[in-house]
């Protein structure tokens, strides 16, 4: 029986807006973007994305997206990794309060929203592919996440997606990588890329701004590699919306503001968001008027020059990482909803033009992440190498050195007659190091076992365990501590008769006979996972597959 054609779905689950795209992995492989989101206003009639909003009546979700009524849940996505974001943001606080008020867990809210987004997206697919598409295609979903998210936030996202009824075949990709694929693929089609070109992709969204750098290895067919570790922070355009609302409250008074109708406040905020914010070019003398029925004119506020900063250290980190490898950045590509801002473009252009770096606005920047997610599912081989966001390794007990080791790790090894330092880290793959598919990490390891223990177990097997760990610190810890997190345990057995036949007996410092049992350990780096293998006397005795914590 012939295998089914695969249908790829890309979901951009955003802080303030979300998107849905899809493509069939055959023929032209055209990426289809859902744009006909239901709306209650004129500004979103054919939007590329839909609000990440959800409203409840009791514990039941009743409205979603642009048409969410009352006081909808907003900004709940950032609660997946609250330590990374400011709890001072009003909408984040409101989301926390809402969870308690409606007795909902965070995963339930995200699951409810993703479930609605999935059903709404499937309606679009059915209109173009027929209502039986789920029986004719194998479905694969690519879900986007911020570059700076830790493994626990990514795992919670996956659990919520599966709970929402999405297919089991789900993969995560970082938002800036998805945006890079959409943007650089477009430039490749237009013959604008050359081998060796380096680009910084700035994904400026509503809640977060993420950056990542790529070098073009081959312009056609497009192949790129990461030049640095992607990073991000919470400094998106939604903070401008919050600042604007704060100014209006200051102008007319909070009590009067709250007395106006909810629909009128929404209309005013939508007008600011769609008609003023992205068209602002830095001219502070230009006057913009907004209407809020029932508010009156109010008193003139004092001049306010509050600004939202797209964190300079994040931009500079990307450029420094590229320069450290002896390369020069050709251009900064602006994508994401905030990437449409003329003012953001002009400020960045003014800063980097002096360095010979062009700042370019991508075509259709708001949907770049969403379209790129589907492209990632279609053509993952475009990114041929990435940089590790984590350190991967194992712990060993080594001879104690007072100049290097913590005294609390010191213990006496009676068998060898020496002091040792326990649980010192050996890192096989370090933060920022290039991950090349097919590369094999090899090393030798051993256990010392008492002779009488082996002799008493003839005809049986001896069990061994190897524990592996990861850490997200750029400067990897030298010893096992709270920043070193378990990745997996590899358990295996070897016949005791084989150990006795292939190893040598020796007398330990304590007078007891023992044997050193040596293993060859291998980890093969693959595109999506790590393959762990243990060999003893040339034979494979253990094998296990593990995912990168990056969730490639």
UniProtKB/TrEMBL annotation:
Pfam families: HSP70. SUPFAM superfamilies: Actin-like ATPase domain. Keywords: ATP-binding, Nucleotide-binding. GO terms for molecular function: ATP binding; ATP-dependent protein folding chaperone. It comes from the Eukaryota. Coiled coil: none annotated. Transmembrane segments: none annotated. InterPro entries: ATPase_NBD (IPR043129), Hsp_70_fam (IPR013126). PANTHER family: ALPHA KINASE/ELONGATION FACTOR 2 KINASE, HEAT SHOCK 70 KDA PROTEIN 12A. This is Actin-like ATPase domain-containing protein.
